[in-house]
């Protein structure tokens, strides 16, 4: 039986990160369906699991790889944003974040009250920063 399945899967796409993400979404919808709109959640769960199985058995490998690459780029941007938010929270007692008026780069400055002159390391523009607390 195992050999027959291996033969069947030759030339098919198989599992990837998007498949795992779709399974996680399926279980989140399953959990939420107990309390919020069960009929709608059941329909969404059916669509998600159908797409996941379709992708796994698909022979159009190049399209599935592109889909996975798009998924990974979105997930990596979300992860980076969350990491930056936690970094800012950790730095709250000692640092302040300000944007350069010329190039828009976010600068991490020491938390010293009052007006200070600083310069952007990227574009070299000098500007004044006021830190109130």
Automatic annotation (TrEMBL):
Instruction: List the top taxonomic levels of the source.
Output: Bacteria, Bacillati, Bacillota, Bacilli, Bacillales
Q: Which UniProt keywords apply?
A: Membrane, Transmembrane, Transmembrane helix
Q: What is this protein called?
A: Zn-finger containing protein
Q: Which residues cross the membrane?
A: 12-29, 35-57
């Amino acid at each position: 039986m195992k050999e027959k399945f291996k033969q069947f899967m030759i030339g098919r796409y198989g599992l990837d990160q998007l498949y795992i993400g779709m399974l996680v979404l399926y279980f989140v919808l399953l959990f939420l369906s107990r309390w919020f709109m069960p009929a709608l959640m059941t329909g969404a769960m059916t669509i998600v699991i159908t797409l996941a199985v379709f992708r796994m058995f698909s022979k159009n490998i190049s399209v599935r790889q592109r889909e996975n690459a798009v998924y990974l780029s979105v997930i990596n941007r979300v992860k980076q944003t969350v990491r930056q938010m936690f970094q800012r929270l950790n730095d709250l007692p000692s640092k302040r974040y300000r944007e350069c008026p010329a190039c828009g780069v976010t600068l991490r400055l020491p938390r010293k009250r009052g007006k200070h002159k600083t310069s952007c390391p990227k574009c070299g523009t000098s500007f004044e920063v006021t830190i109130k607390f």
